[in-house]
Write a structure and sequence with these properties.
The protein is of the alpha+beta class. Helices cover about 30% and strands about 30% of the residues. The longest helix is centred in the middle third of the chain and has 12 residues, at about 20-30.
Length: about 70
């Protein structure tokens, strides 16, 4: 049996409203709960949220997670 190789996908999203480390943690925590997500790095200063996942994510799922954290996906 051949082993499957899985390529991770990195996507950068723009989020408005983050101002501090707590904001970064809230957004990261919600997006991390999406199935397939392996890591999330949020940077309040730039509004960029870098998501590493097993495959493409549904933009609506990401938007809903960001909204749940109290912020808005651009």
């Amino acid at each position: 049996m051949a082993a499957e190789t899985q390529t991770e996908l990195t996507t950068v999203y723009q989020v408005t409203g983050m101002t501090c480390g707590h904001c970064e943690g809230a957004v990261s925590g919600e997006i991390s709960a999406i199935p397939g997500v392996s890591s999330v790095t949020a940077v309040a200063k730039t509004g960029e949220v870098t998501v590493v996942s097993a495959g493409p994510l549904d933009r609506e799922a990401v938007a809903a997670a960001v909204d749940e954290a109290g912020y808005e996906l651009v």
